[in-house]
Amino acid sequence: AQTVTQSQPEMSVQEAETVTLSCTYDTSESDYYLFWYKQPPSRQMILVIRQEAYKQQNATENRFSVNFQKAAKSFSLKISDSQLGDAAMYFCAYRSANTGNQFYFGTGTSLTVIP
Amino acid sequence: NAGVTQTPKFQVLKTGQSMTLQCAQDMNHEYMSWYRQDPGMGLRLIHYSVGAGITDQGEVPNGYNVSRSTTEDFPLRLLSAAPSQTSVYFCASSPPIGRIANYGYTFGSGTRLTVV
Predict the structure, then answer these.
(1) Which residues of B touch A37 (CB under 8 A)?
(2) What does R_g of chain B's alpha carbons equal in angstroms?
(3) In A, what residues contact B, Cβ < 8 A?
(4) pLDDT tens-digit profile of B24-56?
(5) Is the CB of A47 less than 8 angstroms away from the CB of B92?
(6) Which runs of E-coded beta strand occur in B2-116?
C-alpha cells in the first residue's frame, strides 16, 4: 500500500509571512493524484489544492501553491501571505489511478498563525 | 445544496450498544468511504465502496459493518460499541478518476462519537 508521510506535526507562521508544509509519499505507480486538505476547528474537511502526477506544472490556487517533485516523491504546500483563517490541520493525500482509486492520507500538520 | 450529508453530528453510546451512522450523497458519486480520525493518527479507512452492491474493508474494519444498497447511501453500523471506537467519523464520496475533472473527496461534516 502507498504511504504518505507528513513529518511536521506542528508548524507556526507569523501573519502575512510564508510557510511551507512538507509531504512525501511512497509509491511504485506512475499515474496518481495528490491533494492538500484543510481542516479548521469546525472539523469540516476542505479541499485546498490538487495536482495530477502527469502534469509537470505546479498547481496554484490564489495564495496556495505546491512544489511537486515527482522523482523525489515530494509534494509540499506553500501558503503565502498567511492569514489568521489559515490556522488549521492540513492533510496531504494520495489517490491511486489504479488499485481501486483508493485514497491515502498523511497524519496531518497543525498550523498556527501568530498575529 | 449538493454534498455529503452525515448524521448525527454527535452521539454518546454505552459500551455494548449498537448504532448506525448515516451517510448520503446527491452527486451520483460511485466511490464512498468511511474514515475515523484520532489524534496523531490522521484519517484511517474503515470501509469503502466503489458502487452499489460492492463494499470492501479498509485499514481498521473490525467492529464495523457497511452496506451499499443504493448509489446515494452508505451507512456505517457499529455492532457492539467499545470505548476504543470513541472517535470522529467522516464519510466521503468521490467520482472515479476519469469521469469528471473534480475527483477529490467531498467530505461530510463528521460525527463525534463517544463510547462510555
Answers:
(1) 105
(2) 14
(3) 9, 33, 35, 37, 43-45, 47, 50, 91, 93, 95, 97, 100-103, 105-108
(4) 999 999 999 999 999 888 899 999 998 999 999
(5) no
(6) 4-7, 10-13, 19-25, 31-38, 42-51, 54-57, 64-66, 76-78, 87-94, 106-107, 111-115
